[in-house]
């Protein structure tokens, strides 16, 4: 499986890599993936399990955002019906993604707000069977809330 080893400096990280590689190959008969194995500073950041981790932020990585949008696109085509079943399907995807990425240590509030707007725009376009236009804004947030649409921001932990 995946794991991260954190060290104080590059020298320690290189020594740790040698030790980990040796232990995995000799004791557990496993090999490290060369594509996934690298040494980086925390300020440079690195991607791990769908997150982009840096010294000052922990957000969804771009690939995770695109995967989320792809799932929503598949079920919100303008040729499909806009009904309660659709809202249920969208909520299922929203709930799963938000529960995974809305952690106390993450900084996804802005990303979630952006994705919420994007979902509502997709649903407006679907309802009116046309691309985004200013008159599609007739359906406000209140309308989607009444239909039962979940907001990703609602899953974000509130500050204590």
From TrEMBL:
Keywords: Nucleotidyltransferase, RNA-directed DNA polymerase, Transferase. Pfam families: GIIM, RVT_1. Coiled coil: none annotated. Residues 1-53 form the Reverse transcriptase domain. GO terms for molecular function: RNA-directed DNA polymerase activity. Belongs to the bacterial reverse transcriptase family. This is Reverse transcriptase (RNA-dependent DNA polymerase). It comes from Candidatus Kentrum sp. SD.
